[in-house]
Amino acid sequence: MNGWSEGWNDGSAPDDGARVMPHVQRRAGSYGGYAQPPQPSQGEPPLPPELSPRRAAASRGGVPRQGMADGGGTTYRAGRGPGGPGGPGGPGSGRGRVRRPRSWRRRIGWTALTLVVVLAVTSVATYFWADSKLTRTIDLSALPDRPALGKGTNYLIAGSDNRGNLTPQQQQALHVGSDNEGQYGNSDTMMILHVGSNGDTLVSLPRDSYVTIPAFTGATGTHYPATKHKLNVAFSWGGGQLLAQTVEYNTGIHIDHYAEIGFGGFVNLVNTLGGVNMCLSKPMVDQASGANFKAGCQTFNGSQALSFVRERHQEANQDLGREQHQQQFLQAVAHQTETPGVLLNPFKLYPVLGAGLETLNVDKGMSLYDLAQMMFAMKDVSGGNGKSMVVPVGDPNYYTATDGDALLWDKTKAQQLFSELQNDQQVTVSGN
């Protein structure tokens, strides 16, 4: 029993009266909207009952394809059941929907892209933030009679004892006194850092070095002739500008960049780092600088660090002893700044960067890249991949009528050292 009349197989219409579908209502004489019942095409045999659209759809567990009649006048559309929305196969029934598989590869790609964009934006923002912290005042391009451009990069690093940004209470606590010699104060630290293809070299220039201060024009426009004085007098008279001119004049080295840090900034940087670890081979006591340290490894805060780098009364040669302390400490600062605890911790990195950059006075051509190169070179020197020395000294107790005790460079060795640095050659000279 298939529900169809026998006459269907010979081309006659089904007996509609004998087959009433409860869910389909037709008007009298209507055949699915046609005046006459559908007839098979000429030359095509009629479909057997088992291949009728309804039977075929039922055997697949679905509905006929779009536009296909069920033989009873009802046309099925794709994704919709005979009852319309909500019916079998219709919207809301869950049938007929094709769900795409989740693409984890696409999600990972979007996540990676988002991270790259965030890092790029953060890096650019950090660059402009850090660049705005630098104070650029020294114009090296304006120096007269400059040596020829050398090979490699030469940095002149100075430490200023200017007390202008310190209160009287801070001056007393830091044991720096309150007197300033000249408009710019003095410089306790003067070093040439050479970065080149034959390794990095850090050369200290003692502040008591007796040198020629070349002719220069002061801030008021007054012209001063060349004269002989201690090296730190050049800084006292003309700040970093005249100091750079004097160093170039006496060494023949082209200074590419200049960096200066003052007392207040020095103390603030060390405290922001959380102190600097230092190891002393013997106790150190100096009432003038406030140094009072035991032998062994210990952590210096800002005030203690300043006392250490200014101490000069414990060594037989005061000025040379202080130069060695300063080199030792600057190398320790450079090494500690690059530790993962600082570089990988934004809550530590940004305060350290801010403290260091805000207290620097650099030349107008100094970029953040140049500054980073300087710090990496300092780390290389402290790690044994470079050379640290004091300029060769011939007479450490040379007496002058105007400046008292001073020291003279060993002219032959010093000239050889400066020539090797200017030409980026392997340093063969040993210093004091």
From TrEMBL:
Residue ranges of domain Cell envelope-related transcriptional attenuator in the record: 186-337
Composition-biased stretches (Pro residues): 37-51
Keyword Metal-binding: no
Naturally occurring in which organism (per UniProt): Streptomyces humicola
Keywords: Membrane, Transmembrane, Transmembrane helix
Keyword match Hydrolase: no
Protein family membership: Belongs to the LytR/CpsA/Psr (LCP) family.
UniProt-recorded name of the protein: LCP family protein
Bias (Gly residues) ranges: 69-95
Regions that span the bilayer: 108-130
InterPro entries listed in its UniProt record: LytR/CpsA/Psr_CW_biosynth (IPR050922), LytR_CpsA_psr (IPR004474)
